[in-house]
Amino acid sequence: MCSSRETTRSSRLSWRALKFLSRITLAYFSVGASGFVKSLPIRKQCYAPQSKVPLSQLHYRGAGSEDPHKAGHTVETRALLVLFGLLPGRRKLQPETKTKSLVLVEEMLRQACAKIALSGIQRGRVSCNFVSDVDSSPIALSLDFLEDGSTRGLADLENLHKGASKGWDKLSQHAWCGRKLSTTLQQTNLWDIYLFLIWSKHNPSSKIWEQFSVHLYPKVVFFAGYLLEAYVDELANLPLAPLPLLKTKHGNSRRVPKVNKIILLQRVKAQKRHRGEVMQTHTDLAPRQIALIRAEANLEVAEYVKLLTTAFADTQHVQVSWDASTYDVETLVAIAYDYKKNVSGYLPIQNISPVQTAELHETVRTLAVQGRITRVESYNTMRSFSHALNSIGLPLAAFAKPPDLLLGPLRAEEERVLMNGTYFIYNTTTQSIQRQVPTAWSLAKQPLLISVSDQGPLNCPGLDHLQFKLRGFVLPLYDQSHRTWNDLKSAMRSVKLFRILLQFSILYNMNYGPGGTKAWMAKKQQYAEEFRAKQTADGQIFLSYMPYICHEMGLSEPTTAEEREALFGTITSLQTLQQHGPLVKLMRWFSYFQSHQFYAGEHFWTKMLIGEGGPPQQGIQPEAVLTPDILAGNLDDREELRQLKLKMGSWRLAPLLVTPWTWWKNELLVSMATPVWSCFTQKAQQLKLPHEIAGDIAKRAATKLWAEEIHAVIGNGFFDGPQKLYPARFLSNEEEGDVQSSASYYLRPPFRYAGALLAESRETTLRQMHADWAAVLKAEKAMAGGAGMEPLKEMHWRLNSVNRLIHLIRDMAEVASTTAERRAYNNQVVELLTFVSTHLADTVIVENTHQMAKDALRDARHFQKSRTGKQVACIRCSAIPSRGVPCLKVSDDQKATASAGKSSSFDKLTHPNTHALKKEFQRLMETKTKQHTWPSTTQQMEWQQVVATEWFLCYMQDEDKFAAGPNSAWLSVLAGAAGEVVACQRAGEIMLILAVGSYGFAAWDLELAAGVRTAAGMSAFRPYRHNAIRFHHITELEDWVSVPVKPGLSGPHGPLHLEQTSEAMSLPLARIHAGLNLTCKQCQDLLALFKVNFRKNQSRASLHGLILDLFLETEHEKEEARRKMAACLLPQEEEHAEDSDMEELLEQLEDLENQGDPEIQKEKEKIKQRRTGRIAVPRAAGPDEGEQVPKRKAKAKAPPKQRKKGLLEPKMKAHLGHGFTG
Question: How far apart are the C-alpha atoms of 10 and 415, rounded to whole Å?
Fold first, then answer.
């Protein structure tokens, strides 16, 4: 703070004095009952007990202290002034020390007054009351300070207190501790007043302190303390200035000043790559060999782990978003979030390495040697996930359910009884009774985990085993973003529009080609300039493109030469020539539609500029270009485009892919997909913070807003889209996927009851929650007793321990003895619902981390990436801060003061092999049996849970209404597929099927299209504009019929409607005409319904034959039905074998970033191996729900290779999967 050389010396000396003061602080100060610190008397006559400062002004660094001040004992400004006031009375101090300490205080106050406006501190006024020594009258004194720190408030002191006035004159003439007053009472200043008060404090014989100064001193200390605080804040905003580098007398470098390190870090703050090399050039700040330059990454990671451990030290309820991607090896990245502290951080990255035999339990190792294990990669993924969580003290084993906490469904011999407001489980066989919730159990101390990941084949089996088999307190939430993109992609493939997406991706990424150099952007600009110079508005090329350009831009065609010239003049100002625009990339699923928005209105402009004079209709026609395979149609879309790229190059190919027909299909594709990707984009832009996500979940679950996306799809398809005849399968497939995804997310517990988070719907939701769970418990008891409750078997959500815990606490609230206890239990329910709803929403944040981290590591010299480098790349990326979510970050100050550690200490945190899971976790790799089994999670299974839950609750509300029993709604499978129309004759309702499940279907209500009749005189139907989605359950076939329809237009430009094509027919007959595809159980139930005899072990084909005999009469009809059934039973074409999720987009793009992505290279290698037969193509789902069983390798004749110690023999690798390969 001091600028002069003298002041600097005084500062050094006074800091030594402060160090001494820290040792005598306890001797001079004691803590009073009022929470203030009172100074003890130095001399017998000193009146120091009246000097008080708050305890918060002193920071004592004792043993176990949690004070953040790390530099030792410290004091704040007011305590500092009081301590300096005590120094002159300390006899052991040298006079020079006392003098320079007073000089330091004077300089600090002088500089503070010069920089800080005193009017902002107590309005620049200090007031006190005292008794005059002239006439013993009470006096109210006010000192009004000017901006320079001076005041005239003591001008009349001689008439108010003669003793103080004489003392002022005395101190002005005679120095005390080397200091004298420099001003008169007529115009004095703040530091002279402070000096006078300190002098009077240590001269009690004058009585000035007792009569006058003791009243003014606390007010001046308070005022000056706040002045110094404001000055410190002012100095904190000034830019740092480096200090010179010093050396010892032997020429060795002294310790680098901390400020230099901070300045160095600030200079390279924007440098993402090669930071070490750049830091070495700043030799004016630090030598090249210091640890901050040599091992900045190690310092940052070590400090980050400390922050992570501290932040999550007492966390019990945690949410983790995680996903694995390929850097140099498969690497798992996880983000932990604590909703109570509102803090997030990156767990240590995990290099997923092969499982070694030494890690396995003996029983599992024996099965591995015998080749009888599966799901190895899933176990490997869960082991890595657990090791990452172990860094915050919460491995997967920590989430195990306590054995004395009884949450599972009751067995046949168990009963749930209520005694004295507490639930007990009574065993009728053993006559034993046990509390359902132990007395010592506490929700606050029970670890709970919310896992947010994509629904992939590696994590789902492990998470299912953890939540359903081991009954751990884990609630897996699967990313809706992945589902939305997959639903849309499936719909595009069903109507052959996926090729259009691949074609226009080449065009949209041209500005970044070739190979990421962006040279084609300049080439396009050059072509535009040449076209503008050589062509005219009346030229044949421009005139041939003008109708298409105007149509695309939504303009009327020019009718005059001036209008044509004006349109022609815009050629050089096109947006695609000024900006590079978005890039279609893997990590940004909907980037294609963003790129379309960027190119909107300029597709034909671009074709005209780079098409070398070809007409608008020109496509890929020359026979010399098309290979025999392309002409014969033997190639899929991806392979055909790849060969065309190799033959022609992307620059020549791109304009040929744009024709009026392909442009129209592209517009159609984008228009139909708009509701899906726009809803996703809006959520990503509006819902960033966890509490915003929780509010959105609650709002959608409590109302029909969960179907908002489906409503948008219906409205866009039938009313708002381009007035053309849509491909019917696109709408039906898109609707089906959206309904299944949205309903599975919002209508399954616990989100089903997220409305309890809203004050307006809390009581209603809690009551409904209790009623629903009572029905579940009643049905579980009946099923344990042998009753048939098939819908309950599909409601897997009831087996999750987190769900059962929420419902158990809600039940305890209903039997609470007091209102306060009931309120406390309901608050716990709301707290748990808040916990499961307040999270980071999806894995997009992890995908963005992958993308940014790979960008930062791309320029590394070697393909092999260090673990520390990958961790630093993750924690430095802006994926979390860009959302506004508070996250851990290592400050420059922490890095500047950190000591260099060994990278091996962090590497241990990234080695999953050092973290072996217990035997019960390893049993995940055992093949499922009747005793060793658990449900498996798929998107279809989650949808079946929703439908079964809707039917179950509907049935339990009025059991007498459904005489056929709880299993009767299985007839809903006969309703048909998505996009078909059915009618309920009893209710007089007609509806469009959106998605069908085992015990019901979701449908949108239809209305008659007024004034519209088909050519055959039949009716036409149109969906209601309002949200008219409902669940229906078919329990009697007589009430329901299928209505054959086809899409049509109500006018020349729409809107779309559904035209009835023939008379309605019964549901079984409709399914036969569409191609019967029922399971043996469903065939048996249908035949039993119509009282047709059959054998229990009869084959599926013969059962189908009995059904055909029941509903069809002629042999021709039966033969046609068998043909359709055979077509339905054919295995669907394996899409994965021909184009993978990553290659389908990126292989078409001229993007250097995508070309070098190791993840894509790995995927291409997999496809190549599949074509050569070295890896088995995924087969149809078997007893283990779609698990892949690789083909055995042929026995090698070559001599056996030496293997690594601890890995399984080479002959076992085919059975153990990739996780066991060396």
Answer: 82
> For the chain, what is the radius of gyration of the CA atoms?
39
Can you read off the two tokens belonging to residue 311?
Answer: 């932040």
Residue 620 confidence (pLDDT): 67
DSSP 926: B
Q: Which residues of 712-745 are buried (b: 16+ CB within 10 A; e: fewer)?
A: bbbbbbbeebeeeebbbebbbbbbbbbbbbbbbb
Segment 876-920, tens digit of pLDDT? 999 999 989 999 999 988 888 887 766 668 889 999 998 989 999
One-letter-per-residue 3-state SS of 942-972:
HHHHHHHHHHHHHHHHCHHHCCCCCCHHHHH
Structure tokens at 637: 């879309």
Domain ranges within the chain, ordered by starting residue = 5-234, 258-294, 484-672, 939-1129
> What gap in Å lies between CA 935 and CA 463, rounded to an integer?
11
Query: Out of 405-414, 628-637, 1047-1056, which region has the weakest mean confidence (pLDDT)?
Result: 628-637
The phi-psi region of residue 1131 (left if phi > 0; otherwise alpha if psi is between -120 and 50; otherwise beta) is beta
pLDDT at position 654 over 90: no
Helix, strand, or coil (residue 131): strand
Q: What is the pLDDT of residues 248-267, one digit of tens each?
A: 888 888 888 888 888 888 88
User: How many angstroms separate the CA atoms of 265 and 876, rounded?
Assistant: 13
pLDDT tier at 67, thresholds 50, 70, 90 = low
Q: Which two tokens stand for residue 339?
A: 């909703």
pTM: 0.77
Centre a 10 Å sphere on the Cβ of residue 535 and count the other Cβ atoms it contains: 16
> Which pLDDT does position 636 carry in this prediction?
63
Whether the predicted pLDDT of 47 surpasses 50? no
| CB proximity list for 846: less than 8 A, separation 6 or greater | 321, 322, 323, 333, 334, 335, 879
Do 499 and 489 meet the contact criterion of CB atoms below 8 Å apart? Answer: no
Residue 38 is predicted with a pLDDT of: 38
Residue-wise pLDDT for 117-127, tens only, equals: 877 777 788 98
Distance CA 679, CA 687 (A): 11
Asked whether the predicted pLDDT for residue 862 surpasses 90, the reply is: no
Q: What are phi and psi of 2, to 5 degrees?
A: -95, 145
Cα–Cα distance measured from residue 621 to residue 697, given in angstroms and rounded to the nearest whole number: 52
Residues composing the chain: 1222
Residue 776: C-alpha distances to residues 497, 794, 883, 918 (Å): 45, 12, 40, 33
Contact in structure between 349 and 876 (CB atoms under 8 Å): no
Query: What's the CA gap between 88 and 632, in Å, rounded?
Result: 103
Q: Is there a contact between 496 and 733 (Cβ–Cβ < 8 Å)?
A: no
What pLDDT, on a 0 to 100 scale, did the predictor assign at position 1137? 32
Q: Do 104 and 14 meet the contact criterion of CB atoms below 8 Å apart? A: yes
At residue 54, the 3 state secondary structure works out as strand
* Residue 1058 CB partners (closer than 8 Å, separation 6+): 981, 992, 1006, 1020, 1021, 1022, 1045, 1046, 1047, 1048
Q: Determine which helix (DSSP H) or strand (DSSP E) holds 1108, and give its type and residue range.
A: helix 1100-1111
- Strand-pair partners of 1030: 1003
Q: Which of these, 486, 465, 362, 681, lies nearest to 1185 by C-alpha position?
A: 465
**pLDDT interval class at 366 (50, 70, 90):** very high
Instruction: Report angle CA 1000, 1004, 1010 to the nearest 5 degrees.
Output: 140
C-alpha to C-alpha distance for 747 and 952, rounded to whole angstroms = 13
Name beta bridge partners: 320. Answer: 336, 451
> In whole angstroms, what is the distance from residue 908 CA to residue 868 CA?
11
986: phi then psi, degrees, rounded to nearest 5 = -65, -45
Provide, rounded to the nearest whole percent, the portion of the chain with pLDDT above 90. 35
